[in-house]
Amino acid sequence: MRRTRWIALAAAAVMAAVLAAPGAGAQDALEATENGVTEDTITVTVVAAIEVPGFPGLFQGNHDGVDAWADYINNSCKPKNTCLAGRKVEVKHFDSKLSGDEARAAFRQACEDSFALVGTGVLLLQNFDDITQCADKAGAATGMPDFGVVVTEPNEQCAETNFSINPASLQCDTFGEHPQKYVVNMGPTLYYVKKFGKQKAAFLYPSDSASAKNAQVPIFHAQGEHGLEIVSEIDLSALAPQTEYTSVAGALRDNGATYAKSGLAFDSTVKMRKEAATQGVDMEIWDCSLQCYDKKLIAPENVDAVEGQYVYIPFLPFLGKGSEAKQNKMLRNFIKYTNREGRAQDGFAIQAFAAGLFITQAIEDAIGGDNNALTRDVVLAAAADIHDFDADGMISPTDVGGKKPNSCFMLNQVKNGEFKRIYPKKKGTFDCSKKNRTTITEDIIQ
Questions:
Q1: 19 falls in which pLDDT band (50, 70, 90)?
Q2: Residues 292 and 154 in one domain
Q3: CA 433 and chain centroid, separation
Q4: Rounded distance, CA 188 to CA 74, Å?
Q5: pLDDT by residue (tens digit) across 60-96?
Q6: Residue 291 · residue 318 · CB < 8 Å
Q7: How far from chain centre, in Å, is Cα 399?
Q8: Are 104 and 130 in contact (CB under 8 A)?
Q9: Using CA of residue 319, residue 321, residue 324, residue 326, what is the dihedral sign?
C-alpha cells in the first residue's frame, strides 16, 4: 500500500514538473502577442539605403549587421531558435535608396508585419509619422520601436520610438527652440591638439541632404572652439567624381589647412587625398570617423593615398592585424557571423549588430521571463531605461535610452596598409574622459 502511494505521489510530482515547463501546458503556450510576433517568430525590418547612384552598397553594412545578429541569436541557445522570448528572429529588408517615398512605404509595411525596425539608415526624409503613429496589435498608436544606426533627421532623432545606437548630438529638449543645444565628443580633437598643437581646419559637408549636413555642423563647429581654426567649409555632393576634388585640394592649399576631414562616405576621403597628392598638398592631420573604418579604404588601389589616415571609432577594432577579437567575446561573435556570404564588415555593420543586441536586452528586460508579455509598448519603456549599454564591451558605454552621445573613442591610424590602434594604447579600451564632452549652442534647425 505504501509502495503504491509512493508511486502515485512520484507520478504526480513528475506531471507537475512537466506542466510547469515552458510551453508545456496550454496556459504556457506561446502566443501571437504583437504585430510581427507569432507563436514561433519575432520579425524585424531593416530599412536602409543600398543602391545609391555613384555609391552602390552605401548602407549595406546596416543590413548585414542585423542579419549577423539574427544568426547569432538563433544559433546561440539550446534548443535552437528559442532564444529571444522563446522565438526565432526573422529579418526583412527594404532598400530605401535615396527616396523618401520608398522609405515611407517600407515603414508602413513594417508597421503591419514587423515588431521593430533595427539598423535603420534613411536619408532625404523628414516625415516619420509612419513610425511614430504606427498602430500596435491592439489598435493603439504606440509607434514602432526604431533602433537605428544612421539617424540624421531631428524628427527621427527625437521621436519617443527612436533609440539610435549612436545617439545624435542634438539635445531633444531644445528641438524647436532657437538656438538649439548640442553635446559633442571632442576626444579626438583634444588628442590632435595636444600632440600637434593648434591646427587650421578644412571640412567637407554632404550637400545632398540638409539633415545629414546639419548633423555634422555642430561637431565640426565645436572642433573650431577646441583648437582648430576653421579656414574652409565646403559643400560637396556624395556623387561628386574625382575631378570635382581638384578645387577641394586647391582650397586646402590656398587656405593653408593643416587638418582636413570629410563628413561624406569613405570614398570622399580617398578622392580628396588622391587629388591632394597630385597637387602636392601636404597635411599634418587627415581625419575621419567610423565611415572610414572599412577595408575598402585600404584596398590596393587606395592604400598608398591613405597612408597616415586617422580614423576614430566608438567600437573595438576588428579589421586585419589590428583586430581585437581576442580581447572581447562579443566582437568574436560579430566577426564570426559577418564572415558569411560576403557580408560587409565595416563601421555600419558593427553598429547594426550592436543595435540588435540592444533590442535583445530591451526585450529581455521588458518581459521579465514571461514570453507572452512581448509588446511594443513594454519594449519601448524598457529601452528608455537602458543607460549604460556597451554590447558586452564591444562598443563604448552609451546612454542609448537617454539619447545622449558618449564621451568615448579610440583612434586608429593607417600604417603600412593596416589600421593600427594608436590611442589609447591598451587593447580593449577606450578614452572615456568626461573632458571629451562639450556643449555647443547654435541655431542650425530653422
A1: very low
A2: no
A3: 22
A4: 37
A5: 999 999 999 999 999 988 876 678 999 999 999 999 9
A6: no
A7: 13
A8: yes
A9: positive
d(CA 296, CA 419): 12
- Could you tell me the pLDDT band of residue 14, with boundaries at 50, 70 and 90? very low
| d(C-alpha 139, C-alpha 142), whole Å | 8
Pick the closest to residue 175 from 157, 148, 150, 152 (CA basis).
157
If phi > 0 it is left, if psi is from -120 to 50 it is alpha, else beta; for residue 46 that is beta
Q: Residue 80 has what pLDDT?
A: 67
- The closest alpha carbon to 419, from 315, 281, 278, belongs to 315
- Mark whether 91 and 199 lie in a shared domain: no
Q: Give the CATH number, domain containing residue 251.
A: 3.40.50.2300
90 pairs with which residues across the strands? 43
- Is the domain of 375 the same as that of 340? yes
User: What domain count does the chain have?
Assistant: 2
Give the CA dihedral 242, 287, 415, 426, nearest 10 degrees: -150
The rounded distance, in Å, linking the Cα atoms of 198 and 204 is 19
Same domain, 289 and 346: no
What is the rounded (10 degree) CA torsion for 60, 294, 291, 347? 70
pLDDT digits (tens, 9 = 90+) for 108-143: 999 999 999 999 999 989 999 999 999 999 999 999
SS3 228: strand
Verify that 261 and 341 share a domain, yes or no. no
Residue 293 corresponds to which cell in the numbers above? Answer: 573604418
Cell of 137: 496589435
Strand partners, 88: 41
d(CA 77, CA 84): 9
Domain assignment of residue 375, given as a range: 32-166+333-383
Q: How confident is the model at residue 55 (pLDDT cuts 50, 70, 90)?
A: confident
The alpha-carbon radius of gyration of the chain (Å, integer) is: 24
Count the residues in the chain. Answer: 446
In whole angstroms, give the CA distance from residue 413 to residue 381.
40
* H or E element at residue 362: helix 347-367
Same domain, 201 and 259: yes
Q: Which long-range contacts (CB under 8 A, 24 or more apart) does 143-146 make?
A: 143/376, 143/380, 144/107, 144/110, 144/111, 144/114, 144/115, 144/116, 144/117, 144/376, 145/115, 145/116, 145/117, 145/359, 145/362, 145/376, 145/379, 145/380, 145/383, 146/116, 146/117, 146/120
